[in-house]
Amino acid sequence: MLRVTDHAKRTDTGRRRSGNEDSHFVRSPLFVIADGMGGAQAGEVASRTAIEAFAAGLPDGPGSDEERLAAVVADANGRIHELAGSDEHLTGMGTTLTAAYVGLDDLAVAHVGDSRLYRFRDGELQQLTDDHSLVGELVRRGQLSEREAEDHPQRSIITRALGPEDHVIVDHHTWPVVDGDVFLLCSDGLTDMVADPRIEATIAQAATLGGAADALVAAANEAGGRDNITVILFRVETVDAPAVGEQHTLVGRTAPTTAEVRSAAATADAQRSEPVAVRAPRAPRGPAQAGRRPRRWAGALKGLTVLLILVALVGSGAWIASRSAYFVGSDEQGFVTLYQGVPYSLPGLPLYQEQYTSGLPTATLPSRVQGLVTEHKLRSQQDAVDLVRQLERGTVAGQ
Ligand code: MG
Questions:
Q1: Which residues contact 239 (CB under 8 A, 6 or more apart)?
Q2: CB 39 within 8 A of CB 90
Q3: What is the percent of the chain where pLDDT is above 70?
Q4: Distance from the CA of 370 to the center of ligand 1, in angstroms?
Q5: 97 burial level (CB within 10 Å; 0-12, 13-18, 19+)
Q6: What is the pLDDT of residue 281?
Q7: Cα 184 to middle of ligand 1, angstroms
Q8: Using alpha carbons only, what angle is made at residue 260 by residues 257 and 263, rounded to the nearest 5 degrees?
Q9: Distance, CA 118 to ligand 1 centroid (Å)?
Q10: How far is the CA of 189 from the centre of ligand 1 (A)?
Q11: Distance in Å, CA 17 to ligand 1 centroid
């Protein structure tokens, strides 16, 4: 299964525009970018309205991730179109939108317009979305070269956007992901100013995603900063998931519970009483060696060995638990979150990490249901995912 290990976002007005009509939404594993267009503040309204359609996250229901993502985009189109028709100041407004969702096993994408999604893998950058722009169409038909497109005077004309029509065709796709893939979502304020090879080199050279995001915005501004610049970068890694048919609730003897980890740690710290531990098989001592070693050193050595074994047992138990168990809780912002690990930290070593954050605020749940989130009960991955999905759907008993 996949996990987003790191992400960074930056948005900048650029050097020519007075306002920023780009909008973005980042709630890992969902990342969205929108670039609005229209008179006065209309572009800002359009891109913000598009982003707001994702406030509740990716809804559950029938269909694949990419289909449900595309449905949210189509819904956003309806909202923008309706809003544009209700206020003369907003007439004709529109926005691009590119949304990426890291699912359990792959990346789902929905896209309209000329904001872009790139994948950076093994030092190489590849654009994954087609530009719905005049020059983009001409390049795909072979009537214009990539090089000619870069400086084309009509490159800002887009052929598809959210808002202008009551119906829009949404491109959607699912991409396989390889461990360590980095994805870039960006508005044309970056790509009109900075060519792909420079973007590739910038990501390759940066020590962190935040550093890469800063450098990309700086490069666009140094090149003139003619438009608003927004970039979102995220890195995905693959982690082991329980094999199908072997998913089970890791409570009791299968995996150490929080209490067992705590108790074992306390025992290791105290090392007062004779610990009950499995002793590692020991090679028989040579007679000469055994004969020369003073007994008190042998006793100290034995104690140290037992301590090391105990620490190793606690460490490996904690590690196994943190890789195998899941629980549901609230993140720091109060949203229902799926965690991998156990709800406990050893000194300097948290034994859990976020797997998925829903758009569902825990505080909005009925008090009877909140217990399911706050009890931090260890579950199998499937059980934990099912619980989060049920909470999102509002189908938990009592909701
Ligand atoms: Mg733009």
A1: 1, 2, 3, 323, 340
A2: no
A3: 80
A4: 42
A5: buried
A6: 43
A7: 16
A8: 150
A9: 17
A10: 5
A11: 10
Query: What pLDDT is recorded for position 267?
Result: 55
Residue 316: per-residue pLDDT: 65
Q: Average pLDDT for residues 234-240, to the nearest whole number?
A: 94
Cβ atoms of 97 and 32 within 8 Å: the answer is yes
Look at residue 383 in the predicted model and tell me its pLDDT.
Answer: 79
Ligand 1 midpoint to CA 22 (Å)? 7
Contact 19, 13 (CB under 8 A): yes
Q: What is the whole-number distance in angstroms between the Cα of residue 34 and the centre of ligand 1?
A: 9
| Separation of alpha carbons 392 and 337, rounded Å | 11
Distance 102 CA to ligand 1 centre (A): 25
Q: How far is the CA of 146 from the centre of ligand 1 (A)?
A: 19
Query: Cα–Cα distance between 22 and 228 in angstroms, integer?
Result: 7
Q: What letter would DSSP give residue 45?
A: H
Tell me, in angstroms, the distance from the centre of ligand 1 to residue 160's CA. Answer: 14
In the beta sheet, which residues pair with residue 110?
99, 172
Q: What is the DSSP letter of 114?
A: S
What distance in angstroms lies between residue 188's CA and the mean position of ligand 1's atoms? 5
Residue 262: what pLDDT?
59
C-alpha 197 – ligand 1 centre gap (Å): 20
Which bin fits 38, alpha (ψ -120 to 50), beta or left (φ > 0)? Answer: left
Asked if residue 292 has pLDDT above 60, the reply is: no
Cα of 393 to ligand 1 centre, how many Å?
A: 35
pTM tops 0.70: no
Distance of CA 21 to the CA centre of its chain: 24
Give the chain's mean pLDDT.
83
Q: How far is the CA of 323 from the centre of ligand 1 (A)?
A: 42
| pLDDT on residue 251 | 42
Report phi then psi at 281, rounded to 5: -60, 140
